[in-house]
Design a protein that fits this description.
Layout lengths: L6 E5 L10 H5 L4 E6 L3 H10 L4 E3 L2 H7 L4 E4 L6 H10 L3 E5 L6 H14 L3 E4 L6 H11 L6 E10 L2 H5 L7 H4 L2 H4 L2 H11 L3 E9 L43 E8 L4 E7 L5 E9 L2 E6 L6 E5 L11 E4 L8 H17 L7 H18 L6 E2 L5 H6 L7
Parallel strand pairs: 1-2, 1-4, 2-3, 4-5, 5-6, 7-10
Antiparallel strand pairs: 7-11, 8-9, 8-15, 9-10, 11-12, 12-13, 13-14
Bound molecules: nicotinamide-adenine-dinucleotide.
The site of nicotinamide-adenine-dinucleotide has 25 residues, from loops.
């Protein structure tokens, strides 16, 4: 029986590791007792951010030291699967930042380890908890647009130059594709709103702007907020890109889901504005968001019109006006509750796997002449293990 006063480690003390601070806030009694980072700068950040925590150079050293019930993994994407598998084999509960992995094979390997060791695995798809996604979902659930048949997503990644092209995110060997790194949230939300999982994908896109910028260098000791600036405009004025830039900055994918819903997703990393726009079309109406944080609205059209910008109903989007700290706190609280009580969560590891599957195979398609790819099923025994882990 696991104690409700969890002892938790944070692995990878970079920009995202601050979510570890939420653990004791959302579940008093929880303590961050250890940090791991492979760099001296990261270990120093860990010692500063989590005073009193033991500091380790590797996950192996953390496991050997013992004494932790759970670990929050906030390392670069290509390390997720190996670190998660090691922890699960050691029966340490895992909060793994999205994406679950950078390939479908690795995603399935992590789920298999969780199933075989019967150890809690949770993937940090915090966007499911956001006000905008919940508002869209509630419209669908109330039946205001009938039965969902199509979902279209436009993703204006205005901060893309700063967020994704000045460190490891720009390097395929570390992210695979921005259709995982960035779009895994949205693919998951498409699945959530449509009530199905992608079974066929087609991708198209390329590196059309940032690949031409030649001012590049490493940024040792820095994390993303150190170089972020809204003054980096127009996009071609960005300097100090990662030495390797080989991920696409414009990507598009088409999806057919197992329940017959069709979906599309478009991502561009050099738009002037930074937000996501969803349109969900059902048999009796459609819903769309304007803004994706507190202060924005969701509008529903469910009568016949020509052009009618205001729609037939409007709902406010709840939550923070900037960023996603509210969703981050809900996500962490849900993980800790799941570890202690086994309570089902809003997102299951299976849903996280299906987001990886669609994104990874869309990138394969994009890089192979837009050939269609079919998503293989998760092995049944692994699927069955997670059958009661999600709320729906
Ligand atoms: N859910 C969200 O909203 C959200 C937001 C931002 C980032 N993220 C995710 O968080 C993860 C980390 O992103 P970031 O921006 O913090 O990266 P970062 O580069 O700022 O930090 C990564 C840290 O991990 C350390 N590290 C690298 N390999 C390691 C290893 N094998 N073991 C231990 N430490 C290791 C690095 O030294 C660095 O300190 C990514 O997977 C990203 O997708 C999620």
């Amino acid at each position: 029986m696991i104690s409700s006063d969890l002892s938790v480690a944070v692995i990878g003390v970079g920009a995202r590791s601050v979510i570890g601070l939420h653990a004791p806030e959302v579940r008093p009694g929880t303590r961050i007792t250890a940090v791991v980072d492979t760099t001296a700068e990261g270990r120093q950040r860990g010692a500063d951010l989590f005073p009193g925590a033991q500091v380790h150079e590797s996950t192996e050293a953390l496991i050997a030291a013992g004494g932790v019930d759970a670990a929050i993994i906030t390392t670069p994407d290509h390390t997720h699967a190996d670190i998660a598998e090691q922890l699960l084999q050691a029966k340490i509960a895992v909060y793994l930042e999205k994406p679950l992995a950078t390939s479908l094979e690795d995603a399935d390997r992590v789920l298999t380890a969780a199933a075989q060791t019967n150890t809690p695995l949770y993937v940090g798809h915090n966007f499911r908890h956001s006000g905008v996604v919940q508002a869209l979902r509630q419209v669908v659930q109330r039946g205001e647009i009938g039965e969902v048949k199509a979902v279209w997503v436009r993703h204006f990644v205005g901060n893309g130059g700063d967020y994704y092209f000045k460190d490891w995110h720009a390097d395929r060997s570390k992210t695979g594709t921005l259709l995982l790194q960035k779009a895994s949230h949205d693919i998951d939300v498409v699945h959530y709103l449509a009530g199905g999982y992608t079974r066929q994908v087609v991708g198209m896109g390329g590196l059309v702007l940032f690949g031409g910028l030649t001012d590049r260098h490493e940024r040792p000791g820095q994390t993303m907020p150190d170089w972020f600036s809204m003054d980096n405009w127009p996009p071609a004025s960005h300097t100090g890109l990662n030495p390797v830039v080989d991920v696409e900055d414009v990507s598009m994918m088409l999806m057919q889901l197992d329940n017959g819903v069709f979906a599309s997703y478009q991502q561009c990393h050099f738009t002037p504005d930074y937000w996501r726009n969803y349109t969900v079309i059902g048999t009796e109406g459609r819903v769309e968001n304007f803004g994706d944080t507190g202060g924005g609205v969701v509008r529903v059209w469910n009568r016949r019109h020509l052009w009618a910008a205001n729609g037939d109903a409007e709902y406010p989007i709840q939550g923070v006006v900037e960023g996603h700290e509210d969703a981050d706190r809900l996500t962490m609280a849900e993980f800790l509750e799941h570890v202690v009580t086994g309570a089902p969560t809003l997102i299951s590891p299976v849903a996280a796997r299906e987001a990886v599957a669609a994104g990874a195979l869309a990138a394969e398609s994009l890089r192979n002449g837009s050939a269609p790819y079919r998503v293989p099923d998760l092995p049944t025994d692994v699927l069955n293990h997670f059958s009661t882990s999600a709320k729906d």
